[in-house]
Amino acid sequence: MNIFILNSGSSTIKAALISPEDGIRHVDMRIDNIGNDRCCLILDTIRHPLSCKDHGEALSALMAATEKALVGYQVDAVGHRVVHGGPSFTEPTLITDHVVQAISDLAPMAPLHIPPSLAALDMARKQWPDIPHIAVFDTAFHATLPNRSRHYALPKDIVDKLNIRRYGFHGTSHRFVAQTAASYLRTDIRNLRLITCHLGSGCSVTAIEYGRSIETSMGMTPLEGLVMSSRPGDLDAGIILQLIKDLDGDIEALEDLLNKKSGFVGLTGTGDMRKIEERAAEGDRDCQLAINIFCHSVRKYIGAYAAVMGGIDAIVFTAGIGENSALIRHRIGQRFDYLGAILDEDKNREAIVNKAQPVCDISADISRARLLVIATDEELAIAQQTAQLIEEQAKSPTNLHIPVAVSARHIHLTQGTIEKLFGPGYQLTIRRPLSQPGQYSVEETVTLVGPKRKIEKVRILGPARLQDQVEISRSDEFFLGVDAPVRASGDLDNTPGITLAGPAGEVTLTNGLICALRHIHMSPDDAAAFKVQDNDVVDVAIGGNGRKLTFDDVLIRVHPDFRLEMHVDTDEANAAGLSSGDMGVLVSTETHAQMTRRKITATNSPAQDL
Ligand code: ADP
Fold first, then answer.
1. For strand 3-8 and strand 77-82, is the pairing parallel, antiparallel, or unpaired?
2. Helices 237-246 and 251-260: crossing angle, nearest 10°?
3. Would you state the pLDDT for residue 596?
4. What's the CATH superfamily of 168-389?
5. What is the torsion angle, in degrees rounded to the nearest 10, for the CA atoms of residue 495, residue 496, residue 502 and residue 506?
6. 8, 82, 274, 595: which could form a disulfide with 135 (CB 3.0–4.6 Å)?
7. Active-site residue among 28, 37, 76, 138?
8. Does the pLDDT of residue 367 top 50, yes or no?
9. Mean of the per-residue pLDDT values of the chain
10. Distance in Å, CA 323 to ligand 1 centroid
């Protein structure tokens, strides 16, 4: 299989044709310095000067060069590096118009990176309309970050509105070098605590505990963390406020300052570490200070991440600076004896890594933890992930993604019950609309009164219905001391009741208590695309990063007013490590024509001994 890789950054575009099985690169090219007079196309290590005033011209030049270079090769798929996957994209994803729209919605979170990726994506889809295009997201590897490292201490409503959280970047590289380290150490990655330092133009450090990213220095955007080529890394937020005032509120100028004029560029006038090292050796104080600040910031993160994991088994250096600068590794790797990591200065000086010899151990023989230099290969990693997805999809009849929403316990009420609970003629107050058209949550809540315990503040959903229906999770059942059958919404025959308490009185329902059958709402068009019908029952794979689950018995519900969305309850979401907005994939090992159309027959829950 030959995978064409497009890796489009803010000032470079890299492209390669790779066989993922053996890692052979048939074609390797990049355009550097887009938009300035040093712009050039590097094809198989030979530099060709280019004049490209912007990304669009650079892309056209790349595609023209590609056409010549690819003569004689079949391209089976295209793998695209996409810097930001937001909350939804935590796995490699087949690119459809829907996915392109979702990626473009993320542009405000990576304004320098998403637009060039979209332009590359658009051009490549036109060039190869009949082969799969797969997006591989830099943020995906960090989807495992626990809440404690993911959250910023800002007001919850703002965090929710703007999807503010730590996403982390360089994930493809961190994952690749961590796996390479594990192979080199002949140890399952699930037994290792690693700190990977990706030190290139952009720099980030990640703590990988037993195979999962649990902390990383970049945040919601690639601005946070280490000092970088042209970005400052960590800043006191008060400085930003001061800068906004100083720039008279010119946000574009601020964006430019923080992304292009800070870091090494701001400290020394150049973002190129090779020049900084040369000038520092000649006595340039600014360059000496830049090196000191940089190495100090990396050391600080390594110490912090070792503390977070309670120790380390290896520290990995990778990317342009990490792979090539013995000086920087020496400055960073001093006095790590307390971590059990001792640098061997000779090995460090002589270390050379490349794609053929990707690992060099620079630790002393007596060092318990290893210090490793590893050549990263993001293009190969993207090719491998692209090929893996294509193979998985060959086994699956559909590869369309389904957004997942997590339903907390809730109640639908008739107008009669509303009046008994809240008073005669009472009208519910709309709080906010739900994703399904015409549905909304209301301000009012009620208390569920079970034989064992009560649950207060249970949300009511509107509008009023013809039947009362109370939807709770399995955990709620145990807590309340009730036995709710798993049922589709509205299928309430022979279901138990429960007592509801409101401000104006209590109502004991004779039936309507259920544990909702997981289901997918979809329009007739969606049903046609998924090749399913109303009341079909399907399997959906959701989640990832160690918590992937395939849910069976998922009911398809088709209606012209429905918006595509799968609903699971909080227990199901917790089991798969899900949040609202994650994507599921409909899976089946059978072809559409043979797909079993199971109908829901027995939906009663197993008897619970409470
Ligand atoms: P990106 O892919 O993000 O553009 P790279 O991983 O290629 O970045 O890293 C670029 C950085 O690596 C630059 O700062 C460059 O100066 C630095 N670099 C490359 N080779 C060396 C070297 N031999 N010594 C010191 N720094 C180096």
1. parallel
2. 130
3. 37
4. ATPase, nucleotide binding domain (3.30.420.40)
5. 130
6. 82
7. 138
8. yes
9. 90
10. 8
